[in-house]
Amino acid sequence: MKKLAIPALLSVLLAACGSTGGPEQTAAKVEDRAAGSGAGVATVTAPSMAGSGIAALTDPNNILSKRSVYFDFDQFVIKPEAKPLVEAHAKFLVANPQMRMLIQGNTDERGSREYNLALGQKRADAVRQALVLLGAKEGQIESVSLGEEKPRCAEQTEACFAQNRRGDMLYSGEF
To answer: What's the rounded Cα separation, in Å, for the pair 113 and 1?
Structure first.
């Protein structure tokens, strides 16, 4: 009787150890061997790549690889030509609830530092609000202003100023 009970017990235990994390995440135990660490074991959880479309974020042929929403001078209204980009990122966030996004609002150098910080925040918030209205969860998205501190172009031309008036969307691991 004992010979039959042990294999049955083992199969029940193995079945109970099955993954319950769902398709979104994969967990693995990793030993910490860094100098001065307690040499403990930590659990690392990473998003699953299967069927999630995460590779689309870096595919130059995919709209998701485009991460900037551009604004007119002294404005924080999303232009009609940027709406397909915002919609695509909203759909991605809805399909990948484990992903987080940081939106950085930027301005050109014209205007005071305080004004540019406020305008950059309004631009980042406009993109955030559009994503939430399109179905993304509020907890997935954070918005901050960089004002004029992170210019994409440093020339004193209108074309250059236009490149600096933007909201940049960064995903988990990029900020």
So the answer is: 81
